[in-house]
């Protein structure tokens, strides 16, 4: 068995590691994990947890580090100033975007010091872009977060969760002015971005804008994300461009998704989670496809991250600390009292298991909402006031006609 703990605290940079052929393991989904623990609200995804509950954010970073993550992303998803004053949000007024972003950097840096992990400052899609604001206005929003990442000396930057390549390119161009390495991931599937730009073309534009690492995150399950990254890889090869590849999929099964991904599924954001065994399969397939930055997004808990580290332990030569309490492929079950559970202490059992849904009246797949509302549409325009009762009523009505939700 591979030794536990890995290499010494080298603190090589992200590109140094990837250029040397190392596997870099990303962390998991903070907003979903913290929402389940009671520190984040589904909807605005409240990044102010870094100020309101720093101990919860710190503990989750620690768990991902212990599970084998080499990168700790600052908990700054949806922490842009325009998002923090959107639809009745109090954070911009009462706390300030600056404090939320600074605290996120401090916490991630503190925990990263406890192991061989890098800190990545992250920006994501803005309400300003979806409200059709100008390139200059959107870049100003990114610039505010970037200034804090530079001041706090993070190790590299990630532009993640973009549905429109145009905005992703603006983010990369802004982040690139810092001189730090930039990774860029879009939340798109094989059909491409919301303007119909193919994954291959998206990857080309991101690399031309200055990204050294490109790929996808969120919105789709591992299998779909790998299909998309494969298309990106082919697009880059055709354009004779070089970049490292990255995947941070959902820990949800989403074979029923359309172009808009899992946010269109009626169960979003409270869906059906991947098992650790599903993640073993994902890690192996991502590796075989040539992806060397392998992480997760929404739904990925520390035990999913540990599954990546355990699957790739033969290549990496070591296991994460959290494997001290986890027999590979369930072999700890050999100590179980019940003989039929002891009989499950083997890889073949878990690899071939088809788990039941546990819901006898449910269809096996669901219907995406397919509203097709995107950038520039009236219902996406940013507003400072909370969503009104009237606005909600209109949406409830629209849902009755548009969506096939079982009552
Ligand atoms: Zn996500």
UniProtKB/TrEMBL annotation:
Cofactor note as given: Binds 1 zinc ion per subunit.
InterPro entries in the cross-refs: BHMT, BHMT-like, HCY_dom, HCY_dom_sf
Domain Hcy-binding intervals: 12-312
GO biological process, alphabetically ordered: L-methionine salvage; methylation
Cofactor: Zn(2+)
Binding site for Zn(2+): 218, 297-298
Keywords noted in UniProt: Metal-binding, Methyltransferase, Transferase, Zinc
Pathway noted in the entry: Amino-acid biosynthesis; L-methionine biosynthesis via de novo pathway; L-methionine from L-homocysteine (BhmT route): step 1/1
Keyword hit for Zinc: yes
GO terms assigned for molecular function: betaine-homocysteine S-methyltransferase activity; zinc ion binding
Cellular compartments per GO CC: cytosol
Superkingdom of source: Eukaryota
UniProt xrefs under SUPFAM superfamilies: Homocysteine S-methyltransferase
PANTHER family named among the record's database cross-references: BETAINE--HOMOCYSTEINE S-METHYLTRANSFERASE 1, HCY-BINDING DOMAIN-CONTAINING PROTEIN
Role this protein plays: Involved in the regulation of homocysteine metabolism.
Protein name stated in the entry: Hcy-binding domain-containing protein
Species whose genome carries this gene: Phrynocephalus forsythii
């Amino acid at each position: 068995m591979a030794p536990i703990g890995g290499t010494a605290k080298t603190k090589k940079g992200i590109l140094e590691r990837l250029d040397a052929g190392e596997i870099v393991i990303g962390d998991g989904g903070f907003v979903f994990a913290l929402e389940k623990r009671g520190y984040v609200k589904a909807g605005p995804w409240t990044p102010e947890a870094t100020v309101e509950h720093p101990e919860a954010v710190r503990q989750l970073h620690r768990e991902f580090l212990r599970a084998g993550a080499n990168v700790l992303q600052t908990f700054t998803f949806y922490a842009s100033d325009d998002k923090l004053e959107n639809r009745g949000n109090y954070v911009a007024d009462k706390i300030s975007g600056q404090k939320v972003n600074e605290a996120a950097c401090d916490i991630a840096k503190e925990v990263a010091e406890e192991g061989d992990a890098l800190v990545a400052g992250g920006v994501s899609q803005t309400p300003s872009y979806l409200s059709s604001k100008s390139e200059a206005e959107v870049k100003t929003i990114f610039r505010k977060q970037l200034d804090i990442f530079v001041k706090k000396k993070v190790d590299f930057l990630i532009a993640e969760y973009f549905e429109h390549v145009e905005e992703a390119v603006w983010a990369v161009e802004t982040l690139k002015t810092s001189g730090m390495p930039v990774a860029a991931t879009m939340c798109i599937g094989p059909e491409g971005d919301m303007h119909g730009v193919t994954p291959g073309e998206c990857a080309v534009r991101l690399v031309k804008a200055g990204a050294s690492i490109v790929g996808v995150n969120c919105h789709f399950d591992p299998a779909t994300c790998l299909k998309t990254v494969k298309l990106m890889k082919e697009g880059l090869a055709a354009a004779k461009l070089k970049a490292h590849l990255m995947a941070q999929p959902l820990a949800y099964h989403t074979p029923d998704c359309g172009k808009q991904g899992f946010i269109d599924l009626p169960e979003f954001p409270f869906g059906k989670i991947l098992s650790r065994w599903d993640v073993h399969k994902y890690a192996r397939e991502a590796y075989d496809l040539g992806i060397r930055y392998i992480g997760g997004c929404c739904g990925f808990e520390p035990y999913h991250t540990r599954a990546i580290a355990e699957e790739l332990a033969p290549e990496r030569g070591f296991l994460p600390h959290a494997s001290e309490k986890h027999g590979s492929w369930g072999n700890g079950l050999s100590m179980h009292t019940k003989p039929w559970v002891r009989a499950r202490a083997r890889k073949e059992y878990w690899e071939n298991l088809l788990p039941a849904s546990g819901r006898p009246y449910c269809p096996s797949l669901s219907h995406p909402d397919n509203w097709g509302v995107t950038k520039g549409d009236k219902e996406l325009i940013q507003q400072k006031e909370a969503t009104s009762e009237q606005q909600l009523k209109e949406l409830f009505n629209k849902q009755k006609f548009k969506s096939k939700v079982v009552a």
